Each structure stands twice: as structure tokens, then as C-alpha cells.
């Protein structure tokens, strides 16, 4: 599984970071950074992508 | 003990339901949810007239969106359903009020995106993590004072005044560096701004003047603080905000003032009502309370369930910018939609057994912080952590807390609030 973030869409809500803190981090520029683009914890990452309010996260298999 | 029967009444007569009538919102939650259930099932875009507020012209009325899927569809198309005509009032906002209350919430792109970016740089989870230690100190101190109040008062406390109100007020004022002397004024003004015109909180009969005065006082305080921090930077959110820039642009003083009002009001009352009504829910569902109290690994899901259950902000408004169709409903430009988060949060299409309070519910895609789209709550992360710390500290430090009720509800359609919630600390003699 692979996850990417559209940093133009991200509004920095931190919802993804709450669900998968090892994979996502909203850094000091106020936008998400993907720390592992091939994450192990697939279930949390899928939930994060689903709950991201601006659909900024894309998961591909 | 049971303060309010959690079982919905069998019959609700929809003819008596007026979502614009703030007195309807003080009815018991079970009755309100039974009505919202029927609206969702039978009239998912029910039309209501706007209420009369002296001094504010009322418009053509609005559709009450109660299905989760429709709410998400509207929220995620901000170009079709805009916020700029007003997101927090049924009426279009009079120009005078827009100055103070026309912040991010009632703004559209591209302006919204730019300002949100400037602000969210100062509001990242990591930034907030640094304030968590002070959150813990504040919570411990507030709970110790509640204990002292009970000891001086035959064990009696008011959950709202003694626990739920002071915690978020102190957290947000600390983060922003609001001096101690200004805090009572901040609490009083944020009460007025979110009173929904509840007569107990607005002294004269003129809500418009009261809203304006409260806004002006808050703006004056913030302009003063912003000026002080520009000259003399400190390690607080105010300093970060006055210095934050995107593409070389900073917030104007007026933008800072209206953002501060948003932050104080939104950061205060919503968290307060989640704490007070979370405690009320836990008293109505004692097994859930015992289960959560015994297991800190439920702090995350427990707080999410409190936010779903309480839905501290009842609705936000959107206004159609063009003709179209959503969820089988044809609409024309200018039509208003109220997104009833409390109704979507109990939609049986999305939540199994939605009228059950379940502190382990997971996944829990509630819309208590807003639905899909760029207006999702900026303070969600702060609120979540603050609530997690608060509930855990209450389980540890006030295990004898017993709600004695009854709750005194705020007469507001917009904020699901409690004015008072009597309780006892039984361990106190
Ligand atoms: S959930 Fe979405 S909007 Fe929020 S920080 Fe993550 S990517 Fe950005």
C-alpha cells in the first residue's frame, strides 16, 4: 500500500495524525507530511484517508 | 441514577416541531432526537421559517438537513454551497456584525484558504502538544478547587461552573496569553455571543446591541494584546499569530481580532458543553462510565463518542450559489441549508445502534467537528486532547462525582449547552 498527500488540499486538521501518528505529521508549515509512504499500519491509514475532511490523502494498493 | 430517561418517547407530532424556536431546544434530548429521527426518515429537507430577532430582518427560511449523506454532500462542495453569506446565523448577517463575527467560519475560498493556512501554522498538533503539560496542570488545579468547593458546601457542586467552564477558558486564555484580570470579561462576553438570545444571559431585550457590545469589547482586548506582542514577543499563540505569514501576507489587526473571537468563543463553549454533557451521559450510562474509568486505552474512542453524542455545535449554515440537486432535493440559488450535525450523528445508515452511548465505538466517523470540506474544525486536535486529559483526570481525582440533576439547558438552537448541572462529591463529608 502507498499513501500520498495533496498539500494544497490539506487544511492541517491533524485528524490523520491522531489516527496514524507514525505515518502523518502536520509540521510547522501547517500542512501534512507523509513520514512513511509505504506504511505498515494499513488499517489506520485507510481510516485516516477516509476521515480526512478535505480528501487530501490518497491510498493506492 | 437516571437524570433523564434515555428511552425515546414513542410518538412525536412533527406539527409541533419548530427547529427555529429556541424554546424547543430545551426539551429533553430523547424527545428532540425522536423528532430528528422522524425528520430524517420522512422529511430529510424539511423547510422551516426563520425566527424573529428584534433588529435583524428575517429571510426566506431554510431547509433542515438531517441525513448524514446529504450533509456530507453539501459540506464537501463549498463552491456550490457557500459559507460567505453567513454560517452561524439563520439570517444573513448584518454588516455591522460581520466585522466581528465574519471570521474564517463565514468565509469562502480563496480568502478562506489563505487565512486558514496562516492560522493553521500556529495550530499544529505538535505545537499543541507543547501546551499539554499546562493543560494537565490546569485540569488538576480546577478539580482540586471543585473538591474544595464541595467541602465548603455539603458536597454540592455545579459541574458547569466548577469544572466544565473554567477548564477550557483557562486553557485558551493561557495559550493566547490573556492576562488574569481580563478573563472574567472574556467568559461573560463569550456567553453573550453564544447565548442564542437566551434571556437569562442577555440582560436587556436587545440582543443585537448586546452582541455588538460583546464583540467590540473582545476586539478591543485582542487588538491591545496583538499590539503588545508585536512590540514584545512571547512564547504564546498570540505572538505566533501576529508573526505568521503566508506568501508574505500577514493577518490584519481586524482579522486577528475576529479570529480571536472565533477561537475564544469556539474553543470555550464547545469544550465546556462536551465536558458537562459528557459527564451527564456517563451518569445516565453507568456501565459505560465504569468501563471507561477502568481502561485508559478507551480515552480516544470515549472522547469521540462524547463529541458524537453531545454534538456541541448543533448546526452550521450553507447557502446555494446556483441551482442544482442534492439527495433528491432540487434547489435554486440562494436557498439556505442548515446542517444538523446532531441529527447526522445519529443516522442509523452510518452508526449501528445510534441511540446507544458506547465509549468503545470504533470507527466513529461523527461530524461533531464538522463534515467533509475546508471548514472542518481547526481546534479539533486541541479539543480532543483537552477532553482526553479532562475525562481521565475526573475518573482519577473525582471518582465519587455523582450528577444529581436536573440539567438546566441553554435555550439555543445553535449551541447544545448547559447553564447548570448540579452534582455531589459523595466522598466529601
Ligand atoms: S486529515 Fe487531511 S486535512 Fe487534516 S491534516 Fe491530515 S491530510 Fe491535512
Automatic annotation (TrEMBL), chain A:
Highest taxon listed in the record's lineage: Bacteria
Keyword NADP: no
InterPro entries, per database record: 3Fe4S_ferredoxin, 4Fe4S_Fe-S-bd, Fe-S_cluster_ET
Annotated 4Fe-4S ferredoxin-type domain residues: 1-29
Keyword Glycoprotein annotated: no
One Pfam family named in its UniProt record: Fer4_13
Requisite cofactors: [3Fe-4S] cluster
Annotated spans, Disordered: 38-61
Transmembrane segments: none
An example molecular function term from Gene Ontology annotations: iron ion binding
Compositionally biased spans, kind Polar residues: 47-61
This protein's UniProt keywords: 3Fe-4S, Electron transport, Iron, Iron-sulfur, Metal-binding, Transport
Function: Ferredoxins are iron-sulfur proteins that transfer electrons in a wide variety of metabolic reactions.
UniProt-recorded name of the protein: Ferredoxin
Record organism: Geodermatophilus aquaeductus
Phylogenetic placement of the source organism: Bacteria, Bacillati, Actinomycetota, Actinomycetes, Geodermatophilales
Automatic annotation (TrEMBL), chain B:
GO biological process, one term: cholesterol catabolic process
Tree of life domain: Bacteria
GO molecular function: cholest-4-en-3-one 26-monooxygenase activity; heme binding; iron ion binding; steroid hydroxylase activity
Coiled coil: none
Keywords assigned: Heme, Iron, Metal-binding, Monooxygenase, Oxidoreductase
Cross-referenced CDD domains: CYP142-like
InterPro entries (alphabetical): Cyt_P450 (IPR001128), Cyt_P450_B (IPR002397), Cyt_P450_sf (IPR036396)
Official protein name in the record: Cytochrome P450
Amino acid at each position: 500500500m502507498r499513501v500520498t498527500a495533496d498539500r494544497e488540499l490539506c487544511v492541517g486538521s491533524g485528524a490523520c495524525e491522531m489516527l496514524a501518528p507514525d505515518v502523518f505529521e502536520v509540521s510547522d508549515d501547517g500542512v501534512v507530511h507523509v513520514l512513511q509512504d509505504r506504511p505498515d499500519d494499513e488499517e489506520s491509514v485507510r481510516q485516516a484517508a477516509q476521515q480526512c475532511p478535505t480528501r487530501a490523502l490518497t491510498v493506492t494498493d | 441514577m437516571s437524570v433523564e430517561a434515555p428511552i425515546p418517547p414513542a410518538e412525536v407530532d412533527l406539527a409541533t416541531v419548530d427547529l427555529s424556536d429556541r424554546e424547543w431546544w430545551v426539551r429533553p434530548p430523547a424527545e428532540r432526537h425522536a423528532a430528528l429521527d422522524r425528520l430524517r426518515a420522512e422529511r430529510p429537507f424539511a423547510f422551516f421559517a426563520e425566527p424573529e430577532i428584534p433588529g435583524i430582518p428575517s429571510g426566506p427560511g431554510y431547509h433542515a438537513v438531517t441525513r448524514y449523506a446529504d450533509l456530507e454532500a453539501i459540506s464537501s462542495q463549498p463552491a456550490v454551497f457557500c459559507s460567505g453569506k453567513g454560517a452561524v446565523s439563520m439570517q444573513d448577517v448584518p454588516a455591522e456584525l460581520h466585522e466581528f463575527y465574519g471570521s474564517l467560519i463565514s468565509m469562502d475560498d480563496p480568502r478562506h484558504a489563505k487565512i486558514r493556512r496562516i492560522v493553521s501554522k500556529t495550530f499544529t498538533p505538535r505545537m499543541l502538544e507543547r501546551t499539554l503539560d499546562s493543560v494537565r496542570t490546569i485540569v488538576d488545579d480546577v478539580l482540586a478547587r471543585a473538591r474544595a468547593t464541595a467541602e465548603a458546601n455539603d458536597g454540592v457542586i455545579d459541574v458547569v461552573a466548577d469544572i466544565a467552564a473554567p477548564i477550557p477558558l483557562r486553557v485558551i486564555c493561557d495559550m493566547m496569553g490573556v492576562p488574569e484580570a481580563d478573563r472574567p470579561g472574556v467568559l461573560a462576553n463569550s456567553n453573550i455571543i453564544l447565548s442564542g438570545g437566551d434571556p437569562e444571559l442577555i440582560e436587556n431585550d436587545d440582543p443585537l446591541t448586546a452582541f455588538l457590545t460583546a464583540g467590540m469589547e473582545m476586539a478591543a482586548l485582542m487588538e491591545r494584546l496583538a499590539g503588545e506582542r508585536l512590540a514584545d514577543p512571547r512564547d504564546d499563540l498570540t505572538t505566533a499569530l501576529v508573526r505568521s505569514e503566508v506568501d508574505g501576507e500577514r493577518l490584519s489587526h481586524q482579522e486577528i481580532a475576529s479570529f480571536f473571537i472565533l477561537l475564544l468563543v469556539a474553543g470555550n463553549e464547545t469544550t465546556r458543553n462536551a465536558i458537562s454533557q459528557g459527564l451527564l451521559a456517563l451518569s445516565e450510562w453507568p456501565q459505560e462510565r465504569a468501563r471507561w474509568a477502568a481502561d485508559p486505552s478507551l480515552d480516544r474512542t470515549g472522547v469521540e463518542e462524547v463529541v458524537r453524542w453531545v454534538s456541541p455545535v448543533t448546526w452550521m449554515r450553507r447557502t446555494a450559489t446556483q441551482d442544482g440537486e442534492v439527495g433528491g432535493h432540487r434547489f435554486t440559488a440562494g436557498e439556505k441549508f442548515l446542517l444538523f450535525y446532531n441529527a447526522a450523528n445519529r443516522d442509523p445508515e452510518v452508526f449501528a445502534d445510534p441511540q446507544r452511548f458506547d465509549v468503545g465505538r470504533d470507527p466513529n466517523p461523527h461530524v461533531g467537528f464538522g463534515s467533509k470540506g475546508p471548514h472542518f474544525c481547526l481546534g479539533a486536535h486541541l479539543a480532543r486532547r483537552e477532553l482526553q486529559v479532562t475525562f481521565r483526570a475526573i475518573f482519577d481525582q473525582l471518582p465519587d462525582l455523582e450528577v444529581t440533576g436536573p440539567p438546566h439547558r441553554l435555550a439555543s438552537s445553535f449551541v447544545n449547552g448547559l447553564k447548570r448541572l448540579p452534582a455531589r462529591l459523595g466522598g466529601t463529608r
